[in-house]
Design goal:
Elements (H helix, E strand, L loop, with lengths): L8 E7 L16 E3 L35 E7 L13 E3 L5 E5 L7 H11 L3 E7 H12 L17 E7 L11 H4 L12 H12 L4 E4 L16 H22 L10 E7 L13 H23 L2 E7 L13 H11 L8 H11 L11 E4 L25
Parallel strand pairs: 5-6, 5-8, 6-7, 8-9, 9-10, 10-11
Antiparallel strand pairs: 1-3, 2-4
Length: 396
């Protein structure tokens, strides 16, 4: 069935020149809907608004403050009654909402997949990129190297309104040591500490509705925990878990409260299960992130009416994951032992994130949501020889 837009907004964006700003014209904002064929690409769960029937979208009353650098001109799109769709649907409608995603440096990770899902639901996307990776990321965007992975379900490309340099290890300029200030990879960039980025976002756009923490780092990740130095251990906690606390501290005050005021972070099974070879304090950092989620949910919920959740994702063959050296083994193990015998796709995590960051999950906060094909539920490896005679069903 040819998809047509039943209702929505057509946006014309007039942007002023902004230094180091990656910006594309925003058109064809979509509203996402659950109810796709699980055998198709999971991005088919995000069709155009034609799949939204007479069910009123669960959207927020509040709207982000307009950007000082953008002028939005909206008009309702007309449509004859005869062409209105009849299929039922439960939409995720994030049109008019603004998301800041910290930790995107390429098109392979979960952060990028989350950005695509939010964009498919109509959200405006802002990105925070690690300073040393900023030049490569911007250049790749300019030259179209990411175009194939930027395609949304309706055929348009994901639009990134602005990319900010960000190093979430440093809360404010006073925290930055001299060796970092003199580092040539940071040359030419400014206002990249967490406090400064939040201030820049507030100045540029006023408010946001969604905050995503998709970053982690452990300089000694390949070392066993018993061989990890104090410096390496604390560095892993600083970059992987406290960075979320810092982002919330500085961004939550500029977030719109209510059903669309939501944040998520990303963790994985190493926080609860032993993964030999995954060291450097990273398992401790992930456990801290999950524990902090519950405390932060209470504090941010009571003070700012903002929801806090974490996604525990399965293994993904991303550039960051390759740093541990055996991500392919982790993926193979998951396929052999998880209840759903398939490789996890990044967009499956993106789809789950879109739900958790939408009004559909307005009563969910302080939760760790597993998106790992059910691997977290398993207590033993079913591909072990001890189960050889048990006739365990397998995906043939």
């Amino acid at each position: 069935m040819e998809q047509t837009i039943a209702s929505g907004l057509q946006m014309k964006v007039v942007k002023s020149s902004v230094s180091r700003n990656i910006s594309w014209k925003m058109t064809n904002s979509s509203a996402a809907v659950f109810g796709a064929n699980p055998k198709t690409n999971s991005y088919s769960m995000f069709p155009r608004a034609s799949y939204i029937s007479s069910v009123k979208p669960l959207s927020c009353n509040n709207t982000s403050t307009p950007s000082k650098s953008n002028e939005f001109i909206t008009r309702e799109m007309s449509q004859s009654p005869e062409s209105k769709p009849t299929l039922p649907g439960l939409p995720i409608d994030l049109r008019g909402k603004r998301a800041f995603i910290a930790g995107i440096a390429d098109e392979n990770g979960y952060g990028w997949a989350i950005a695509k899902s939010l964009a498919a639901a109509g959200a405006e996307i802002l990105v925070g990129t690690w300073v040393p990776a900023m030049n490569i990321f911007e250049t790749s965007l300019h030259r179209g190297k990411f175009d194939a992975s930027r395609i949304l379900p309706d055929g348009s490309l994901i639009e990134i309104t602005k990319v900010y340099p960000l190093d979430a290890v440093f809360d404010n300029p006073e925290d930055v040591p001299e060796d970092i200030k003199a580092n040539r990879r940071y040359a030419g960039y400014s206002n990249w500490t967490v406090q400064e980025v939040a201030e820049c976002v507030k100045k540029d756009f006023g408010t946001i509705d969604i905050l995503v923490h998709s970053l982690a780092n452990g300089p000694e990740v390949t070392k066993p925990l018993l061989e990890t130095s104090r410096k390496g251990y604390l560095a892993a906690l600083s970059a992987s878990s406290y960075s979320y606390v810092s982002l919330l501290k500085h961004f939550v005050p500029i977030m719109n409260p209510g059903k669309c005021g939501a944040t998520i972070s990303l963790t994985h099974n190493a926080s609860e299960r032993i993964i030999p070879g995954y060291g450097g304090g990273m398992s401790s950092a992930k456990a801290a992130l999950e524990s902090d989620t519950r405390v932060l949910a209470f504090e941010a919920g009571r003070r700012y009416k903002v929801r806090i959740n974490t996604i525990s994702a399965g293994p993904l063959r991303s550039r960051a994951a390759k740093a541990i050296g055996f991500v392919d083994t982790m993926i193979e193990y998951s396929i052999n032992n998880a209840p759903l015998q398939k490789e996890l796709a990044a967009d499956e995590v993106g789809n789950a994130a879109a739900f958790l960051l939408s009004p559909l999950s307005s009563a969910i906060t302080g939760s760790v949501v597993y998106v790992d094909n059910g691997l977290n539920a398993m207590g033993m490896a079913v591909d072990s020889p001890v189960f050889g005679d048990n006739n365990i069903p397998k995906d043939n």
